[in-house]
Design brief:
- Four copies of one chain form a homotetramer.
- Chain A has about 475 residues and is of the alpha+beta class.
- Chain A is about 35% helix and about 20% strand.
- Chain A has 14 helices and 18 strands.
- In chain A, strands 1, 2, 3, 4, 5, 6, 7, 8, 9 and 10 form a ten-stranded antiparallel sheet that branches. Chain A has a three-stranded antiparallel sheet with strand order 17-13-18.
- Chain A is flat and about 80 Å long.
- At the A-B interface, helix 8, helix 9, helix 10, helix 11 and strand 14 of A face helix 8, helix 9, helix 10, helix 11 and strand 14 of B.
């Protein structure tokens, strides 16, 4: 079956795969299949239990076409011609020679005339957000972000033969290095210490003598995949006989338990202070005389007592954790980071974006919403909309009006009327099933249709049949 | 003995008391004695075990001179004439009639001509920081702040006969109402609910019908004291036959365990994320699908597991609490809030403020620091300086150059050289003993004298004998 | 000849005209021809002597194809589908019914589904910067701006049959109303007073009773032109039987002598104060006692003397006017407002934008600048670059890297080395002639080529033959 | 007579003089007499016709007591003890040795202990605003500012024997160097060029070789005066046998015709653009092609025409000059700069500042305004209040609530009701005569008294007899 082909991934060209995925009825399932294709033949399940966040893994496929269609240097050349690619914003020109890392960005637009001159002089080119220029990259990342529950990003790297563009360093993201053209010699090193395992921030550039011996050394060829977790130092250079083009797909930046706790903890304390008088009681009159760095060497029983009271309150704090509210804060950040969904032809023809209203022969045709109680609808993607409560109000956050350029648009949301909350929750939880508008738990048909129109106009829902 | 007299407080006028206190060798002891005088005959110990933060207490003394010398309306009148008292900044004109609370502040300087006109028309006058104008109030508060380990403030209230200036409300501070002249009818009410016990913020004005029945109703007369904890609603009005002048001494604003935890908790999380890889591990891929308000009613075992992981990490967080560093942050805030010490004549003559260098007969005399290794010194007050470490650096914070006007000066500090840290710690912990400069644990005599000169010039230390 | 055809404009379709203009060797000549086409058959010369800034003029052509190709509703429909048109930013939805003017913009992207619904409900659509979406509008405006020496802008208005979208008002720009489709009933009124002749700011919306009787009333049909100066009140509405599409081309916003004087006058005073001690002499000691509004009715001879001294100095001020520097300030503002030039195919193939460097068959080809002393070059357009001195430095300002979106890019410039100033001036003044790089008045061939490369990379010059 | 004594100034001590001046009925006359005392025996009239803004002048009196009472080092010493003098804010510690000028200010409060140590080590002390600390300096400056119609400031300089505290330089103010104690060797030099005659800004420090030969060299002794205009370079140093204390009284900073024109010119252009269509007409289409620095060498007849049109408009601009409004803008700046008047005992007892309302024996006495229609009033000083119109509104600006610290208070003013404008103008112009409140040109007695009360409460008027 198609699905099996997808699962083992053999000989599946990316365009065909994406066309197949467009027929998968559930966006979460679609995302799983795409991720499975990325790491094939390693099963996703074992990847996550044994490799993810733990160690590098190499997939060599001897199939240079495996990732074909995702991106190419020819497409990059076309892009430079037709799009407004700006040095420093969209494209970095870099070199790493004799242990020195340099950036060569001039000001202004990157035109082939200057870009290829840099390349010919041994500079590497890093395209910072290919998703804004390539529909395929956009499509792939927008599907994967739903799988990761965290922003999926990408950089493309083009390196001339016999050169290296970057110093050894580690990043703050999980990295999937997808080799697209040519080949590249990679060396991967263990984190230097426990403190640099799964680090919060990327490193500065290292000197070769600081990083020890590689735990993995390999020549990646077109169709191969190299994954390594954040904190693993890496460097890649081109052999004299071939250029290299790869895209690094990344995720899980600032997506740790600690990052979530940063949302939980201040609010937990606020709640504890509101609800628990123990947190509002005054400090001992004399605590400044035995606490503080100046007194930290004192063996004062009052210190012990003070410290244990702090311990007790910190533990009690856990009971006031507003976990769901904090998750929603995190979700809002994620929604702002999200790429908008790229619609399949079917989705397009059944949503506001592809609606047939138009100007034809000097007048408008097919105009006016035809949503009725009989119209069957569902949210466009499992994860494209989310109900959150912000104090008194309930808001619906959604990704369908986001931009392909990171944070170019504000986070999109609107306040949900009390009488619409249940209907929206019902709608979200019913995915991937279509519901008739008439089945919405609202008071009147008018109300149901008004809600459906509102959601349709924002691109949040689409219909089972084209309107 | 003097001390006994002070302890029982009989017949002790404030000026005499303060003169006696000037001879107490240790500023902490001095502070205890002054506080004891404030609450006499209630022993401070039982006050703190039974009353403080728990309930109101009334001390009726039948001695209208008990607090005499602290402040008076005559002094207020002199102040208006000689000082730049500004409406809205230093003085509020208020009224509460027929259940309506109003403020009548005009712009500009408050002169007797307009102030007494307001008073004669039934307005109350609230002087906001008498410590900036009255040396006695400054002296008393600067001593008490060392006792409380928290800023001590004061407001003075002058109310015409037969009027009330303020609506019933509660405050966010511990209040000591000290009746100075005339008398005032007070009503005190319990907090309205558990949530308003020891509240974080002051209340708005209440209507009479919202506050129930008073738990204490009394006419306070000159020499009497009324204490009530934050959260206790109160209102006071003048009887037709007498005006009232009282000062409310306050402390413990934002000085609770929770306020300290606000310093502890964000840093604890930062440390945990640096030191403990568990906090840096990624969130589950799918957590957004079962967590969040939208999913809070779901009975999903993954929710239970997620919540218990948060509980586990929150409890673990306690083990990373930087308590001493957080206390120092709190201490810095307190140091910024502090009044500068008011020096006794002996302190003055032995410190930089009273040093004898001067212009006389057309030339300077007694100039040039005469600090030597034999000079004996100590810090001016037990709590006037504090060593704190801020990351790499160690800084000495001090209150001796603060202003009598709240936050008019920046928080004062300087970075301490590594070779001076031990000497300063030694100096602070040796108080109230005097040390010879030669005994400082520094490398050279030059170094010891240089440090002593530095501390002397900032007013942090004084000498055993006038220089 | 081509030129004659262009001049009388008969039967010339816009695309053909623009193709012809691409062959005109001098951008200023090209601009004149395009403007002549706009106002045909009125000769430009008589237009400027008799009509411009003086009175409305109507050109009825009975040729609905005259402006064809400039813009169309069909193109607008395509735009909504393919481009990110945002309500409020790029598109306004308006109505004017029963004397009330309303704006109906929702938030977010304007999609055909909602746009056409508004239209069908009688709303007018105003597209704010068609030049960002339509290459033809961009091309036309970028040519006209060189003619006007002032920014040329455009708005497109689509109005449903039987409706009016805007209240009567006047604008602060010279307006060329170009009827593209359907027809529109226009009424134009004289400025209401001398003060509103050639006004500095646009008016608010007027009531019908405030504007008197029209001086011109006409039904504009496709191919017709209506011009009116700033200050002339106007309103247009659709007849019941036809929609209307027109584009209003505008220029001369804040481009008056007074606007230039705002640059001249403060600097003139600065110079006068530096160079002329009369301006630095002190005011009379007692001038505040007889001058000022409070003394304006006094018949004091000192007033007369004071006023005549001011008159004398004001007149003297004229002699310090830095006119050329002020014109350059104005030019810089204009350069920032400018659209970038739209290149003809010949210009493209001979400039950095169309240079043949590219990726082909896995490697770069045609790379590396081949500019030599023999290369013949000229500036891309007569007015695309300008040398200005800013204090000490000389800077070259240029428009070739501007964006089609107003002020999206900063004003572009770079500092010119002293040894390059003459060469750049020579280059600018030689236009439209091509010069060999070797003929630049620089010291060395290296220098000449370096300058040429710099100018070529910024798109300021192009070569006589493709490189 | 008193007046004659004052005029010839013989043997008049400052305190006696100021007491005498307190009896002068008109503040302008008072100011004239004080200025005459300053420059005695030079008649003020000849001083302003021959010396002011033209050249230095020296007055040697052989009377070391002439300026006695203005300020002294003993007073400075007292000030350091009792007032919050801050290094860098109120006091600068400087030195000029071997051609190097240094500032030695530590942070924080200036106490005698450190100040006299600096002095003993050869540093000069500059007290920046003695008027904030010395009532006599305040009094003298507040009187002189009315004479100058421009802020009068002062710095005090104390210099140890055998040292120099400042490098040669010139200032941007008219300087009256008043020698108070000891003696100082001064050298004064001509401005270095025409451009530095009456300069707008002070100079940097000069090297000795840059300033040529002095035109005046003298040893100033106590009681002597040295005046020099802005732009004259000067330096002073102490002889080995005596310290020096002098105060420099200054005025006329930014008080030139050009400074006034900076208020006139932008508004004149605004008015011209509103009222004169010539200023609103568009620039020539092609002006950018022949104007601007790039074209400044072209001999183009259009340049001549363009330049002469600018000349014509600049001259026409003079006819739109809003001189009185601009003078009022300047007056407002001056009012903000002004010291508040220092009241004489008579003024005090008849104004709000000295009104007898007070607290006495437990109650208020003498309260309530007793202004009636019979009360006779006048403005406190000829120049303490000024009516200005700001667009629609008329405001009264006044100096009586200013602070002795420069700009510590906002500029004081209030909007004047239409029905009060005439009365205030009448009141201002009647000075120094007293008017009965009943004679105010207002509609009702109520209105007249209300206005008088308002002005009395702001300290703007005082009464003929104490209330």
């Amino acid at each position: 079956t198609k699905d099996e082909e997808c699962a083992n991934g053999d000989g599946e060209a990316l365009d065909a795969l994406l066309a197949d995925l467009a027929n998968v009825n559930n966006s979460r399932e679609r995302a799983s299949k795409l991720f499975q294709w990325l790491v094939n033949p390693v099963p996703a399940k074992s990847f996550f239990s044994e490799t993810w966040e733990k160690k590098p893994i190499l997939v060599q496929r001897k199939n240079s076409d495996y990732y074909k269609g995702l991106f190419s240097t020819a497409e990059f050349d076309r892009m430079l011609r037709k799009e407004d690619v700006q040095y420093g914003v969209n494209l970095d020109v870099t070199s790493y020679t004799n242990g020195k890392r340099k950036t060569h960005n001039p000001a202004g637009r990157a035109l082939p005339f200057t870009v290829w001159d840099f390349y010919e002089n041994g500079c590497s080119l890093r395209l910072l957000n290919p998703q804004a220029f390539s529909s395929t990259v956009w499509n792939v990342l927008s599907i994967l972000q739903e799988y990761f529950g965290s922003m999926a990003g990408a950089n493309v790297y083009l390196t001339p033969p016999g050169t290296q563009g970057f110093a050894p360093h580690y990043d703050d993201i999980e990295a999937f290095v997808v080799q697209l053209e040519g080949k590249k010699h990679w060396r991967v090193y263990n984190p230097r210490s426990e403190d640099e395992v799964l680090p919060v921030l990327s490193s500065a550039n290292f000197n070769q003598i600081d990083i020890g011996k590689p735990i993995l050394e390999v020549v990646l060829e077109a169709g191969d995949l190299l994954y390594f977790p954040r904190g693993f130092i890496h460097q890649g250079d081109c052999l004299p006989d071939a250029h290299s083009l790869h895209v690094t797909i990344s995720s899980f930046q600032k997506n740790s338990w600690g990052d979530l706790l940063q949302k939980v903890v201040p609010v937990a304390l606020e709640i504890a202070m509101e609800e628990d008088v123990e947190f509002r009681k005054g400090l001992p009159l004399d605590y400044l005389t035995y606490m503080g760095v100046q007194n930290s060497d004192k063996a004062d029983p009052r210190r012990t007592q003070f410290l244990s009271q702090i311990q007790r309150l910190m533990k009690k704090l856990a009971t006031y954790s507003p976990v769901d509210a904090a998750v929603d804060q995190k979700a809002r950040d994620f929604f702002h980071d999200c790429l908008p969904p790229m619609l399949t032809p079917e989705e397009l023809s059944s949503s506001v974006q592809g609606a047939s209203a138009r100007w034809e022969h000097g007048q408008v045709v097919d105009v006016g919403s035809q949503i009725t109680a009989q119209t069957r609808v569902r949210v466009l993607r499992a994860g494209c909309a989310r109900l959150c409560s912000d104090g008194e109000a309930v808001n619906l956050y959604y990704t369908t009006e986001n931009s392909r350029v990171y944070h170019k648009e504000e986070l999109k949301s609107f306040e949900v009327k009390a009488e619409h909350t249940d209907a929206i929750e019902f709608l979200i939880h019913s995915y991937p099933k279509f519901l008739t508008v008439g089945s919405f738990p609202c008071d009147s048909t008018e109300d149901k249709v008004a809600l459906a129109e509102l959601l349709f106009e924002r691109g949040i829902i689409h219909t089972a049949e084209p309107l």
